[in-house]
Write the structure tokens for this entry.
Amino acid sequence: MAEPESETEQVRTVCSYCGVGCGIVLEVARDAVGRRAVVRVKGDKAHPANEGRLCSKGATSAEMLAIPGRLTRALVRAERDGEATPTGLEAAVAEAGRRLRAVVDAHGPDAVALYVSGQMSTEAQYLANKLAKGYLRTSRIESNSRLCMASAGSGYKLSLGADGPPGSYRDFDHADLFLVIGSNMADCHPVLFQRLLERQRAGARLIVVDPRRTATAARADLFLQIRAGSDLALLNGLLHLLVERGEVDQEFIAEFTEGWEEMPEFLSHYPPAAVAEATGLPEADLRRAAEWIGGAGEWMSCWTMGLNQSTHGTWNTNALINLHLATGAICRPGSGPFSLTGQPNAMGGREMGYMGPGLPGQRSALDVEDRAFVEDLWGLPAGTLRAESGRGAVEMFERMAAGEIRACWIICTNPVASMANRGTVVEALRAAELVITQDVVADTETNVYADILLPAALWAEAEGVMVNSERDLTLSRRVVDPPGEALPDWQLIAKVARAMGFTEGFEYGSAAEVFEELSRAWNPRTGWDLRGVDHERLRAGPVQWPSADPGGPDRNPMRYLNDGVSQDALVRRDGTRPRLVFPTASGRAVFFPRPHLPAAELPDDDYPFVLNTGRVRHQWHTLTRTGRIARLNRLSDRGPFIEVHPQDAAALGVGEGDGVEVTSRRGRVLLPARITDRVRRGECFAPFHWNDLFGEHLAVNAVTSDAVDPISYQPELKLCAVALTKADPAEGGEV
Ligand SMILES: Nc1nc2c(c(=O)[nH]1)N[C@H]1C(S)=C(S)[C@@H](COP(=O)(O)OP(=O)(O)OC[C@H]3O[C@@H](n4cnc5c(=O)[nH]c(N)nc54)[C@H](O)[C@@H]3O)O[C@H]1N2
Ligand SMILES: Nc1nc2c(c(=O)[nH]1)N[C@H]1C(S)=C(S)[C@@H](COP(=O)(O)OP(=O)(O)OC[C@H]3O[C@@H](n4cnc5c(=O)[nH]c(N)nc54)[C@H](O)[C@@H]3O)O[C@H]1N2
Ligand code: SF4
Ligand SMILES: [Mo]
């Protein structure tokens, strides 16, 4: 820790990329005039998430602090397509506040929208939601988690009663079997995948389910190269086989669940032959997978976007949890459903309620008691919070395009590059009277459309709490000053709120004060409990919630234990006190029969291919950070590409590196071909990292589908129907 006399000090912080939430130790040097600089970044050996390991992205965090193109001053455009002029921060904030207020006054609160991010600190997420729901009283707040974890969140709530995995990373060290489905962990959660491989070396088995032979699939003991979009058939088919083999845990089912009665009849529709037909998988592989699951003492599942980004994403989560409930493999060291969180603080955001009707502490504005609790927390008159919400981010941009939402404030996300069917976002931003963006860099695909650009502090320039996939709260430390007039997000949000006239609820001296307020939102129904945590405690190291008591343990690896500590205790009518209590109405976890349905958009004669989209190992999303780091660009040797199966390529007359024109009902893209049998025939894969800043016709989200899951409102980013043709060489497709 800090040693004031020495030239350098060591500061413990957390990685700013993925939701594994690796601990980082910064070596910070001070020059003669006392200015501090990060000279070295290394993995924090004492952090439970990574025990010293870092992947390439975390390891280049110091380079990230030096990326070119930072937004150091506010910029204001007098007219939409005009030059953005540097403006003093106070003037820009005043203008943002004045113009937002004018829109609300003229058109009502729902004319203003906030679109925020799982990469903001918990304090910033909390304040954004407080401003939106408590003060502006708009029902229009959404986050990029809608594109990411929404389906896992709604699936957990239905099956188990509350959001978030019940277990923790410790389970990786005890599992006998891993089912990794719709997740390329090797590239996207590398440090956790290392932990999984360690356990595999000790004898555990790995089943990987993915339509694409990924780096993760390469390590599998059994790789199921499933037809895209057919996971429900597989999951139901596996449970069918477990029932047939007599490998369900009747005792667990009777004691801790409800809804099993319906399952046997439902599952009878998923015999192996039918499942093999629907999924394209050999029957023998299905039987082997079921045998391994049934025979495993402890087993866990890991899933990410291959299941969530689907029009039946919520059902995918339910069907996967059914398997855990039926085998009793949950809430036991080494067992449980474990969604891998994408962004570094999407867990914090979900807990703060930054999507749809959410309120702090895993609460909902649709619940009368939750509203009353939060009105009290915020010191607002009863009835202030509205019992309404929108239907996700896709709908929000549609309403903006339609002129119903007239102003938006986009913080820490780049929707023109990342949103499904991004044509609607472009239309929406063009139609809006006022677009405010808040970012760390000046050039992004979205900033082009902004009237006011607010400069945000980057990682290590701001203090705030981040929550990872296993509920560790780690304090992200401020060790250097932000450049120019840039400020931490929470401060910019508080400033704009005050500029709108909301002086009461937004006076804070520090992020620690904001945290102190939000930690009062303890929810004894779900067990979300930060009462034992504050910034001071986190300076010494991470704490895993539920944490009821400042003197309590730092590690609380399992939820839903019926011990009455952070969560209301359950005593059944017969006087018994079950070992586990799920925060559902009955205290039991719920089986949901979820039939396999075809995807919203299927290939046809006009659009005969399925396009799958995702990520590469050394790049992050829309490249505003990693794309400016030389070491990472060298590692990801090539730019954009589309993977096409050799037989499809031959039929199209496309050779390696040739430009391919990809068209859908919504738009077109031009990408260089990579010919490979990683992808199935009839399917192709493109990363969505490279967008307008790198050339014309590269934005994959010009073609993706914005059909949404009717429960989670998560858009289908993994599957859309496209046509492929060899591009006219004059038009490019090369970068
Ligand atoms: N290097 C890197 N790491 C990251 C990120 C990054 O940008 N770069 N982003 C972070 C974020 S926010 C997220 S959300 C995660 C995402 O992490 P992942 O979800 O693991 O990554 P993706 O590449 O989006 O998609 C995962 C896999 O889903 C598969 N898939 C597509 N359709 C289907 C299907 O129908 N069924 C099944 N079973 N699988 C399917 C794809 O082939 C792909 O291999 O990564 C996080 N980590
Ligand atoms: N086709 C397709 N599209 C997808 C996906 C997919 O798999 N396929 N995945 C979806 C998923 S899971 C996700 S999570 C989204 C991610 O999509 P985005 O959130 O749009 O992606 P990022 O590039 O991470 O954007 C973050 C922005 O915040 C800025 N930023 C970084 N740090 C800070 C900060 O501290 N403060 C502020 N104010 N700004 C900061 C960055 O410069 C960048 O402009 O993409 C989604 N889009
Ligand atoms: S695994 Fe995720 S959290 Fe860990 S260093 Fe890599 S990007 Fe950062
Ligand atoms: Mo994500």
Q: What stands out?
A: The two ends are 46 Å apart (CA to CA). The domain at 74-148+345-521 is CATH 3.40.50.740 (Rossmann fold). The CA atoms of residues 402 and 428 lie 7 Å apart. Residues 148, 342-343 surround molybdenum atom (ligand 4) (CB under 6 Å).
